[in-house]
Amino acid sequence: MPKMSLSEAVSIKAKEMDRYHQQILLCLGLLFFFEKNKSLGMFVGAEIDLKYALNSVQKCVRPDVIIQAWKKDGKLFGIPIEIKLSVDYDIEIKKELNEMKRYDNQLSGWKEFEGLTPDDHVIVYAPNGLDSGKVKRVLEQELKSGNIKFNREFCIWEWQTVTSQKYGKGDVLLIKQIFGDLHGMCDSLNKQLTDGIPIDYESEEFAKKREGAVFTRKKPPKEYMMVWLWTNVLQQSVDSSSNITLDELTKKVNQFYKSELMNNNDGQSFFIKKDWIREAMDWFCKIKLCKESSETCYNIVMNKKIRNISKFICTQVAKKEKLRKINTDTNQMALETFTQGS
Fold first, then answer.
1. Which of 60, 151, 162, 201 could pair with 49 as two cysteines, CB 3.0-4.6 Å apart?
2. 246 and 152 belong to one structural domain
């Protein structure tokens, strides 16, 4: 495997951060769309456990997003959605698709609406548009060979930001169904998804939805967490060379973060995980933007010379990771040489 240059490593980190941001736009876009199209269905949220029985044992699945849509006969059907930020290899895609078999069971735990709950569901896998083609190819191969089988309708919804005058706007988030069919269940929703649902994420109306919506329940790339912490919390909340504990920082983060995206059926929202913050702070120490005063207390070093904090963090983290890999490889070679000489 060829060695990766520093610029390539930085570019990959920037891409991972952008995809995480696009995932947030996807969740908000679905919320935005169904709030405007209540006759089609409703955005339920996430952090919801759907239950099923496997060999008399109770199991749970927790989709990234749950939609409940209206059938033509006036009943509800469920749409649990698993969002995938990035997949690189066919073997990884096959593993992901096999894990989606968990949804191919009778699920309970849906939200009740007007006395109704879904009596059936489809399964939706949602990769980024840059990966959707290979996901579809692998799925079709696996279905044809009989290596995988779904008893319920399986759909692929791709998502990506695009620039197109076709939609009468500049940049839009496009959500499109490229595999599967909701025809017969909800023809109108099926047609819109097949044609592609454009979400104008630059509109003032959508901007209100974006306020505070900076995370989903998926763990963000550490660089994304670092940039957000530095820009929105550390610079706003601490003075130069001041100390802050991990508990204080976690409290500040969760006070700042407000979003209806991740509410569960009871309206309870999840909290940003302390481990995410700890990892980010530990990396701040490694790149000299803070010092660890104790195991859970940090001394912030405000560097006024940083103009592009995102580029700075990605570059410095990539350098540290590259150096760590060189040291690991060197130690491994030394160990092998010692072993061979014994």
1. 60
2. no
Which of 310, 281, 309 lies closest to 295, judged by CA? 281
User: What's the average model confidence in pLDDT over 312-333?
Assistant: 75
User: What's the average model confidence in pLDDT over 327-332?
Assistant: 50
153 and 273 fall within a common domain: no
Pair (154, 49) in one structural domain: yes
Residue 65 lies in a domain: yes
Q: How far, in Å, CA of 283 to CA of 243, rounded?
A: 16
Bridge partners of 81? Answer: 65, 124
Which residues make beta-bridge pairs with 163? 171
333: confidence class by pLDDT, cuts 50, 70, 90 = very low
Measured between alpha carbons, how far is residue 5 from residues 89, 148, 223, 323 in Å?
A: 21, 38, 18, 12
Q: Residue 244's beta-bridge partner residues?
A: 298
Kindly state the tokens that stand for 145: 């060979």
Other CB atoms within a 10 A radius of the CB of residue 285 amount to: 14
Q: How many residues does the chain have?
A: 342
**Residue matched to tokens 């983290």:** 317
330, 332, 338, 342 alpha-carbon torsion, rounded to 10°: -170
